[in-house]
C-alpha cells in the first residue's frame, strides 16, 4: 500500500488532543476522541493491508501477527519496564496491587476487560493509573486477532460477502454500544463489543476506498476535519461515550481517510512536516504520556500545576522520539532484529513482567515494604468487605436495641468503627447497602420491615438532596432516631507520605479537598428535622480542613483516601463516641 503522509498528520491530530486532555488543558475538553480517531485509522490501514495481500494471494496470518508484534510490543515493553521501579518505590500497596494487575492485563491485551470488571467503589482514580491508557491497545489487539481470521474465511465467498458481513458486525456492535451505554456506561466504555464498530468503520472505508482509488473531494474532506475539531473542542466528560455522539469524530475521520487526497486543503494541512513528524512517533507519544503524568501525580502531595504539566508534555515527546528512533524502528527491521532473537527477547521480557505483575497481585502490593509487621488483613479491601456478615433481613428478638446502618463502602467503614470500639456487643447491629437514593421506587419490603423495627438509624454519607426522601421512607416519626454520618477524605494523594520518616508520621496531616468540606457543610445544613449529624472532619480532624494520616504508631489510617484501614477504624473509634450525636450508641 502507498504511504500517505496525510494519515501520519491525522495520527498527530488524534494523539495531541489525548495528551493535552489528560494533562488537564481545558480547551481540549473532548480530547478523549483521539482514541476513536485512532480506532478508525487502525481499521482502515489493517483492513487495507489484508485486502491487498489477499488480492495478490500472499496473505499469511503468521506474517501478519509478526508485523503487529514488531509494531506494538517492543515499545510497550520498554514503557512497562520503566514503570516498575517507580511503582515499587512510590506506591502504597493498594495502588501497587492494581498496577500489578494492569501489567498482567496489558501484556495479555486485556486491560480493557480488567477495567470493565473493576469499575466501582474500589476503582482508583484514572489519573493515578500509569497503564490506564492501554485499554485501547486491548481493544485493537482483540480486533487484530479476530478480524484477519474472519476476513480470511469470508474471502472464499468473495469481497462483496466479506464487505456485507463486516457491515452486519458493525451494525450489531453499534446496537450493543447503545444498549450498553444505557445499562452500564462504565463497563460499556471499555468493551470491544461496544467499540468494534468504530474500527469496522475504518474497515468499510478500506473496502470502499479501493473503488474510489485516488478520488478526492475538497468539501467532504473539509467537513471531516470540521467534525473532528467540533468533537475535540466542544465535547466534554459529560457527553456519553461511546454512543451516538461518537459517530461525529468517527464519520469525520472516515471522510478524511476517503477524500483528503492530493490537491485538497485538508491533505495539505495534514501533510505539514510538524504534523507528519508527530504522527510518526504518535504510538510512543501515546504510550509515554499516561505513565509520566500518573507517576508525577503519585509523587506529588498536591495537584500538579499547569507549568509542571506542560513540562511533562514536553518530556512525553522527547521520550517518544527516543523510543521511536531506538526501539520502534530497529525492531521492525528483520535484518536488524531476526525473528528468533526477537521472539526470545520478548518471551523473556514477558515472563519477567508477568511474574512481577502476578507477585504484586497475589501479595496485595508487597505490603512488607510499608507496614513492617502490621496486621496486613486490616490494610485491604477484605477488611471492609467483612462487614457483609452483618447484612441480615431481620433483627433478633432478644430485647436489645436494634441499630440499622445504611450506606455503601463508607457505611461499612462506620460498622468497622463500631466494631473496633467493641460497641456492637450492646445491641443488634444490621448493615444494609441496598437503600437507594434518589429512587422513584419505594424501599423493598425487607428494608421497610427493618425501618419499623430499628431503634437507631445510621446513614453514612447521604447526598444532600436525599434528606427529604429518607424522612419519607423511614417515617417522620422516626426522624428523631436518625443519625447522619458526614464524609471523610484524606486529601489529594497519600503516596507521598511514604517518604515521611517513622518518627515524624504521627504529626502528618492531609488537607481535605474543598469539595468534601463543602459537601460536609451541605449535609449538616440539610439535616432532616430531629436528626443528628456526626461531623467526622471536626471530630477527628479538629479544624475541619485536615485529617491525620497516621496513628500514633505510624500506621496509615487509609490507603485510598476514602476508606479506613484497621488502624484507621481503631483511631476513629477512640475519638468519635464522645460526640452527643452518638449518645444512642453508648
Question: Which labels suit this protein?
Answer:
about 575 residues; single chain; 7 strands; two-stranded antiparallel sheet; 23 helices
Q: How would you describe this protein?
A:
The protein is mainly α and 586 residues long. It contains 23 helices and 7 strands. The protein has a 5-stranded parallel beta sheet with strand order 2-1-3-4-6. Strands 5-7 form a two-stranded antiparallel sheet.
Topology (SSEs and partners):
Layout: H1 5-22, H2 33-55, H3 61-90, H4 93-107, H5 111-118, H6 135-154, H7 159-183, H8 185-190, H9 192-212, H10 218-234, H11 247-259, H12 265-270, H13 273-280, H14 282-299, H15 306-332, H16 339-362, H17 381-385, E1 401-406, H18 409-420, E2 427-432, H19 445-453, E3 456-460, H20 467-474, E4 482-485, E5 509-511, H21 514-525, E6 532-534, H22 536-539, E7 546-548, H23 566-576
Parallel strand pairs: 1-2, 1-3, 3-4, 4-6
Antiparallel strand pairs: 5-7
Helix pairs in contact: 1-2, 1-13, 1-14, 2-6, 2-9, 2-11, 3-4, 3-14, 3-15, 3-16, 4-5, 4-16, 5-6, 6-9, 7-9, 9-11, 10-11, 14-15, 18-23
Main sheet specs = 5 strands, parallel
- Tell how many strands the DSSP assignment holds: 7
Considering DSSP H and I runs of 4 or more, what fraction of the residues is helical? 55-70%
| Strand and helix order | HHHHHHHHHHHHHHHHHEHEHEHEEHEHEH
Globally, the shape reads elongated
- Helical stretch count? 23
Distance between the termini: 78 Å
Radius of gyration: 28 Å
What integer is the average pLDDT?
90
Q: Uncertain spans, ≥5 residues at pLDDT below 50? A: none
| Secondary-structure class | mainly alpha
Q: Strands of the largest sheet, in order across it?
A: 2-1-3-4-6
Strand content: 5-15%
Amino acid at each position: 500500500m502507498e504511504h500517505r503522509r496525510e494519515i501520519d498528520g491525522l495520527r498527530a491530530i488524534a494523539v495531541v488532543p489525548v495528551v493535552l486532555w489528560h494533562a488537564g488543558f481545558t480547551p481540549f475538553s473532548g480530547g478523549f476522541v483521539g482514541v476513536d480517531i485512532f480506532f478508525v485509522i487502525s481499521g482502515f490501514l489493517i483492513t487495507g493491508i489484508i485486502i491487498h495481500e489477499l488480492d495478490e494471494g500472499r496473505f499469511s496470518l503468521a506474517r501478519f501477527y509478526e508485523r503487529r508484534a514488531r509494531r506494538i510490543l517492543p515499545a510497550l515493553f520498554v514503557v512497562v519496564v520503566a514503570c516498575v521501579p517507580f511503582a515499587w518505590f512510590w506506591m502504597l500497596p493498594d495502588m501497587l496491587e492494581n498496577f500489578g494487575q494492569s501489567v498482567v492485563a496489558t501484556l495479555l491485551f486485556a486491560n480493557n476487560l480488567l477495567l470493565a470488571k473493576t469499575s466501582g467503589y474500589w476503582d482508583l482514580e484514572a489519573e493515578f493509573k500509569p497503564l490506564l491508557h492501554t485499554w485501547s491497545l486491548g481493544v485493537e489487539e482483540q480486533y487484530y486477532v479476530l478480524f484477519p481470521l474472519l476476513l480470511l474465511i469470508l474471502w472464499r465467498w468473495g469481497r462483496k460477502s466479506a464487505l456485507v458481513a463486516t457491515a452486519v458486525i458493525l451494525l450489531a456492535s453499534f446496537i450493543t454500544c447503545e444498549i450498553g451505554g444505557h445499562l452500564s456506561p462504565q463497563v460499556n466504555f471499555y468493551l470491544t463489543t461496544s467499540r468494534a464498530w468504530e474500527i469496522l468503520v475504518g474497515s468499510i472505508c478500506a473496502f470502499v476506498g479501493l473503488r474510489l482509488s485516488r478520488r478526492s473531494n475538497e468539501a467532504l474532506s473539509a467537513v471531516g476535519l470540521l467534525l473532528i475539531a467540533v468533537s475535540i473542542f466542544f465535547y466534554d466528560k459529560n457527553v456519553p461515550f461511546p454512543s451516538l455522539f461518537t459517530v461525529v469524530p468517527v464519520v469525520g475521520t472516515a471522510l478524511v481517510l476517503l477524500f483528503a487526497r492530493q490537491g485538497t486543503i485538508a491533505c495539505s494541512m495534514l501533510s505539514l512536516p510538524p504534523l507528519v513528524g508527530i504522527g510518526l512517533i504518535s504510538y510512543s507519544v501515546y504510550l509515554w504520556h499516561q505513565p509520566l503524568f500518573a507517576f508525577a501525580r503519585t509523587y506529588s502531595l498536591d495537584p500538579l500545576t499547569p507549568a509542571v504539566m506542560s513540562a511533562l508534555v514536553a518530556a512525553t515527546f522527547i521520550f517518544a522520539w527516543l523510543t521511536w528512533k531506538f526501539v520502534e524502528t530497529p525492531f521492525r527491521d528483520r535484518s536488524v532484529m531476526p525473528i528468533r532473537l526477537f521472539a526470545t527477547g520478548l518471551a523473556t521480557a514477558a515472563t519477567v513482567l508477568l511474574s512481577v505483575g502476578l507477585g504484586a497481585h497475589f501479595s496485595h502490593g508487597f505490603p512488607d515494604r510499608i507496614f513492617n509487621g502490621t496486621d496486613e488483613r486490616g490494610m485491604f479491601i477484605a477488611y471492609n468487605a467483612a462487614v457483609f456478615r452483618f447484612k441480615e433481613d431481620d433483627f433478633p428478638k432478644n430485647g436489645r436495641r436494634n441499630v440499622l446502618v445504611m450506606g455503601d463502602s463508607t457505611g461499612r467503614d462506620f460498622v468497622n468503627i463500631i466494631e473496633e470500639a467493641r460497641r456492637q456487643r450492646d445491641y443488634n447491629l444490621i448493615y444494609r447497602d441496598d437503600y437507594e437514593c434518589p429512587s422513584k421506587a419505594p424501599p423493598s419490603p425487607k428494608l421497610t420491615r427493618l425501618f419499623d423495627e430499628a431503634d437507631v438509624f445510621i446513614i453514612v454519607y447521604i447526598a444532600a438532596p436525599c434528606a427529604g426522601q429518607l424522612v419519607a421512607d423511614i417515617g417522620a416519626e422516626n426522624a428523631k432516631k436518625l443519625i447522619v454520618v458526614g464524609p471523610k477524605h484524606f486529601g489529594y494523594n497519600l503516596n507521598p507520605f511514604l517518604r515521611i520518616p517513622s518518627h515524624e508520621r504521627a504529626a502528618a496531616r492531609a488537607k481535605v479537598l474543598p469539595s468534601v468540606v463543602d459537601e460536609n457543610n451541605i449535609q449538616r445544613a440539610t439535616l432532616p428535622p430531629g436528626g443528628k449529624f456526626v461531623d467526622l472532619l471536626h471530630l477527628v480532624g479538629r479544624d475541619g480542613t485536615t485529617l491525620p494520616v497516621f496513628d500514633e504508631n505510624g500506621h496509615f489510617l487509609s490507603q485510598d483516601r476514602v476508606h479506613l484501614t484497621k488502624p484507621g477504624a481503631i483511631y476513629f473509634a477512640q475519638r468519635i463516641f464522645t460526640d452527643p450525636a452518638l449518645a444512642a450508641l453508648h
